[in-house]
């Protein structure tokens, strides 16, 4: 019971010391009824709310605000475009499209791509998997540089028709359409 009294006392004293503007000191947008706020008013309110907060750490920022990792171009083999692409995608999200050969049902594609995803996870390559068609899936890599390592594994699989990364199609080792690509 004493804890409840202490908590109530603290809450009531904190309300006393809250910063509150008098009606005449408020900006025009703040005098409106909250139901009449425009998107710009809500944005100003959010900015006002966040102005005293500490900035987020780099690893807590959304991906589009994170600083780009520094690439040492002297260590890259410019003769190998895949290694250059892999280095530029380090730390960035990248989608890879994987096509399953034959005419599998959606359930068969689900089971097969789940097996491939598990194998990648067992090799410390983290990928989320989303089916987009009966014979096609997206593997989403939080670290895009892992996409090329995963591609090497995937194209070796018997039921893999092709892997597409950054618009480039890599045929599977056992693909019947290999010569057409």
Automatic annotation (TrEMBL):
Q: Which domain of life is it from?
A: Eukaryota
Q: Name one GO cellular component term.
A: endoplasmic reticulum
Keyword set for this entry?
Answer: Chaperone, Endoplasmic reticulum, Signal, Wnt signaling pathway
Q: Where in the cell is it found?
A: Endoplasmic reticulum
**GO biological process: what's one of them?**
protein folding
Keyword Signal in annotation: yes
- Primary site of residence: endoplasmic reticulum
Q: Where is the signal peptide?
A: 1-18
Q: Which InterPro entries match?
A: MESD
Question: Which PANTHER family does the entry mention?
Answer: LRP CHAPERONE MESD, MESODERM DEVELOPMENT CANDIDATE 2
User: Which family does the UniProt entry place this protein in?
Assistant: Belongs to the MESD family.
For this entry, the protein name equals LDLR chaperone boca
Organism field: Photinus pyralis
């Amino acid at each position: 019971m004493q804890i409840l009294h202490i908590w109530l006392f603290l809450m009531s004293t904190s309300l006393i010391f809250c910063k509150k503007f008098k009606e005449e000191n408020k900006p025009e947008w703040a005098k409106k009824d909250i139901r009449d706020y425009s998107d710009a008013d809500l944005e100003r309110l959010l900015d006002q709310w966040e102005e005293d907060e500490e900035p987020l750490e780099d690893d807590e920022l959304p991906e589009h605000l994170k600083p780009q990792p520094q690439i040492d171009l002297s260590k890259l083999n410019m003769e190998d475009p895949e290694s250059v692409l892999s280095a530029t995608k380090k730390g960035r999200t990248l989608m890879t499209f994987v096509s399953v050969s034959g005419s599998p049902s959606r359930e068969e594609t689900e089971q097969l791509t789940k097996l491939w995803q598990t194998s990648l996870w067992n090799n410390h390559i983290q990928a989320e998997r989303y089916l987009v068609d009966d014979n096609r899936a997206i593997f989403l890599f939080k670290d895009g540089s892992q996409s090329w390592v995963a591609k090497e594994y995937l194209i070796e699989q018997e039921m893999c028709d092709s892997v597409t990364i950054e618009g480039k199609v890599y045929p599977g080792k056992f693909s019947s359409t290999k010569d057409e690509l």
